[in-house]
Amino acid sequence: MQAEHSYADAPPLEVLVHPGGNGTRPQLSDGEQLDWVRRRRAEVPLMTSVCTGSLVYAAAGLLSGRPATTYWGALDLLAELDPTIEVRPDDRFVDDGDVITSAGISAGIDMALHLVVRLAGADRAREVRRGIQYDPAPPV
Questions:
Q1: Which of 8, 41, 45, 92 is the most exposed place for a label (fewest CB within 10 A)?
Q2: Is 40 in contact with 16 (CB distance < 8 Å)?
Q3: Active site residues
Q4: What is the pTM of this model?
């Protein structure tokens, strides 16, 4: 994949999905990145995150006083970043209206399908689920 836009010339966004992974840790203290996220919050109607992407939102102050989740191994860090967050360790994703956070990778798929329901309806979400052959019943 290659980006078609930089931060500077990106078109207006309807949804922002902040990814997780180890790359989020340096972003927690990166003032420029956190400022960028805060600016997007002011103009993007729906902010979402997968896995530890929610840590960046927490560090930017976007989750203050809100329910949220993250990857199970980072739940304590989420609470440390902002003690006002209502951490939901058992939820695969948390939809708080204009902010949706999800736990780990497969929970991110659940959140994505939920997002498709919100934006395009349940029939479209079922088509997407079939298209990616996602069967949430684990074999073990």
A1: 8
A2: yes
A3: 51
A4: 0.92
Full pLDDT tens readout for the chain, 140 residues: 788 888 888 889 999 999 999 999 999 999 999 999 999 999 999 999 999 999 999 999 999 999 999 999 999 999 999 999 999 999 999 999 999 999 999 999 999 999 999 999 999 999 999 999 998 877 78
Amino acid at the residue 106: S
The second-level CATH assignment, the architecture, of 15-104 is 3-Layer(aba) Sandwich (3.40)
Sign of the dihedral defined by the CA atoms of residues 115, 121, 123, 127, in that order: negative
Rounded distance, CA 49 to CA 70, Å?
A: 9
